[in-house]
Design goal:
Class A beta-lactamase-related serine hydrolase, 24 strands, single chain, alpha+beta, 445 residues, 2 domains, disordered N terminus
């Protein structure tokens, strides 16, 4: 998983026939998520300019006790790519650039630049090195970087594949497209965004982000560490640019995606048809065709710091849906499923978060020091307040969620441990699963 702009899609099954929307139940659904520390953020559903549903829950600044509201501004992460792609298509219409223009016209020293086109970059077919996979990325992601700094990082990296060999998601494509927009317009990306998109719609919150000022109704983000929300830090927005640095509130994102896909306020119908034309089943041009049954939808998702975001537009229903989270301790796909089902008039089921209580006798079975021959890591397991607590050597301790007597998890870290073997009333072995890896740990004698 990439550290910033992990893209995930709405994976849902929807009926094309809609009944009256059950927004009262949807409102209760988000209340339940909030009560159980599963979600903080803002949700908006609208048709044209009519708000069908909006909800804000949680806080934008926990330390200062500032609540989120429907106008709170969030970092969008990779939803930003749709804005960048829109501006590129505007420039194509103006005759200032072409989809077949090569990267070499702007950055001739980048590997394979003469064989990479603007269109390929929009479709993630370039094979460029993704700067977010740089081994040193996490050491500088919170500090300001110049264009020259980031170009140097890109040039040092090895291309992932030859241009057009395949399509593979890459943030470098849209970082470089941001710089190309600046070069064509001869002004900062932020000014192009304001002139080309924000000023053309009633969506004033859309802007290139900076450090969040919570007093100005801008949200900080958080990760849930078992029993509390911890600040996630702030990526310096000089780094992602048009690949992930745009901010907005949920209503304005809906206004944008509706204008993009249902009007000619931003681009022409011909450009829109080109933009949503897919390569295979996944990649269009800065936008995705979302995998739904019976319903056509387009959109994007995003992830930056502790923010997780989704937006989708259903052209046949003329419905736009945006979910912006600054604190997530639940499956975002499940939240998207429920929100979309409610918007289509489908019956939704409220979740139950029943606590699994471990007895005092059970709690004595886990504690100990465990080591692994798979990875050079030692883990100490303890208990606190009826919870199992995990602490890796040299790291912070985390309270785990109890899934069963043998299985415990921490969604914020994508971590699960399963105790598998027991001897004399104590567990001796557990398997840790994280980021696709599986590692066996044994109790030290």
């Amino acid at each position: 998983m990439r550290p910033l702009f992990f893209i995930s899609l709405f994976i849902i099954s929807l009926s094309a026939k809609s009944q009256s929307q059950d927004f009262k139940t949807l409102d209760k659904y988000f209340e339940i998520l909030a009560e159980n520390d599963k979600f903080m953020g803002s949700v908006a559903i609208q048709r044209d300019s009519t708000i069908l549903f909006e909800k804000a829950i949680g806080q934008r600044d926990i330390d200062n006790n500032l609540d989120t509201n429907i106008n709170t501004v969030f970092r969008l992460g990779s939803i930003s790519k749709m804005f960048t792609a829109t501006m590129i298509f505007q420039m194509v219409e103006e005759g200032n650039i072409g989809l077949n223009t090569t990267l070499a016209e702007y950055f001739p020293l980048i590997q394979n630049a003469e064989d990479i086109t603007i269109g390929q970059m929009l479709r993630h077919e370039s094979g460029l090195f993704d700067f977010t996979t740089d081994v040193k990325y996490t050491s500088y992601m919170f500090t300001e970087k110049t264009r020259d700094d980031l170009i140097s990082i890109i040039r040092r990296g090895e291309p992932a594949f030859a241009p057009r060999e395949r399509a593979d998601y890459c943030n470098t494509n849209f970082l470089l497209l941001s710089y190309i927009i600046e070069d064509v317009d001869k002004r900062p990306y932020s000014e192009s965004l304001m002139a080309r998109i924000t000023s053309k719609m009633n969506a004033p919150s859309i802007a290139l982000g900076k450090d969040a000022v919570t007093e100005n109704n801008e949200a900080l983000s958080y990760i849930y560490l078992g029993d509390f929300w911890q600040g996630a830090g702030e990526t310096n927005m000089s780094i992602p640019m048009g690949a992930g640095a745009i901010v907005a509130n949920a209503k304005d994102v809906n206004t944008f995606i509706t204008a993009l896909l249902n009007t000619e306020h931003l681009i022409t119908e011909a450009s829109r048809e080109q933009m949503i034309k897919t390569v295979g089943e996944r990649y269009a041009h800065g936008i995705f065709k979302l995998p739904m049954e019976d319903v056509v939808a387009y959109g994007h998702g995003g992830s930056i710091d502790g923010f997780r975001t989704r937006t989708a537009y259903l052209p046949e229903q003329n419905i736009a849906i945006t979910i912006l989270s600054n604190g997530l301790n639940y499956d975002m796909t499940e939240i998207a499923n429920i929100t979309l089902d409610a918007s289509m008039g489908k019956e939704i089921t409220l979740p139950l978060f029943a606590d699994i209580d471990l007895s005092l006798e059970q709690l004595t079975m886990y504690p100990g020091i465990y080591h692994s021959t798979d990875i050079p890591l030692e883990i100490t397991i303890t208990t606190k307040d009826d919870r199992v607590v995990l602490q890796a050597s040299g790291q912070q301790a985390f309270s785990l969620d109890t899934e069963s007597e043998t299985t415990f998890s921490l969604l914020a870290l994508g971590l699960e441990i399963e105790f598998t073997e027991k001897n004399n009333g104590k567990y001796t072995t557990f398997v840790l699963r994280q980021a696709g890896g599986s590692y066996t740990f044994n109790r030290k004698e």
